[in-house]
Amino acid sequence: MEPVLRIKDLKTEFFTYAGTVKAVRGVDFNIYPGEAVGIVGESGCGKTVTGLSIMRLITYPPGKIVSGEINLDEIDLLKLSEPEMRKIRGGKISMIFQDPMTSLNPALTIGYQLSESLILHKIISKGEAKKRVIELLNLVRIKSPETVFNQYPHQLSGGMRQRAMIALAISCEPKVIIADEPTTSVDVTIQAQILNLLQDLKSRVNSSIILITHNLAVVAGLCSRIIVMYAGLIIEEGTDTQIFDNPKHPYTWGLLRAVPRIDEQEKERLTTIRGLPPDLLSPPKGCPFALRCSYAMEICFKERPPYFNPEEGHRVMCWLLDKRAQKVERSK
After folding, report:
1. Whether 21 and 99 share a structural domain
2. Domain ends where: 223, 251, 279?
3. pTM above 0.85, yes or no
4. Is residue 183 part of a domain?
């Protein structure tokens, strides 16, 4: 099966008074039709910048995509002009943003904002667009869609605004939907509803989903493949089974130990990862996690590790997987 989206050596930087922040430092991954992929990692690791780079929404100044390829159906999005990109953005690839209150225009009705995208990309009349918007609001389980059509964002609850954002993202049945922390601004009950909704929509509209989150528990039920990012790099990638049952990178071990477990009989304190992420104004020469890693060796501080493949579909950027390294057991 051919990927619908190919990311090759993507590098995005921000030019500030303090210096150049290397936010994304050479990211490679593929997205296949109809799959859901999770990108996880702590704040500042480059998850959201990767998503915004794919959408070509990095604002210059201060940010800029300095190199790489973003191929959607063999079209390199980085080579398109802004008018050409505007035809693709929202039509073939769309994004659900973190905060719907700041993403939706407060001066325009929900119906107008959803209709606008349909009229632009599908070239249909206002009447046809309204009918389709009502169907979309029903699809995302918003009650009284005819009423909501004429309401403004501030008149809706946080959960309803997020559903409206999802309706906007799927309105033109894009091939790829990037969901950036779609459950951050809602309570736990609404979180579960939105994740169930995304799971249901994935099968209905057959779009590929890139779910960006810092919460490993969120990706567990939705994503079949997981990408772990740290300091602007992908440090581990594998299937959900490989990442949850057989992770290989010490950073992934730390993330998993920080997630509460309901299947453990003995209650233990959640552990934290010691130290702080590296300063991306001057990234470390070796492994970016070395200063925080309990298993770091001399080479970890001198040279960035290549990708090792412990099994098919599983890649890990860690010197512990080198045959010459002393084997260590993961501490559960």
Report:
1. yes
2. 223
3. yes
4. yes
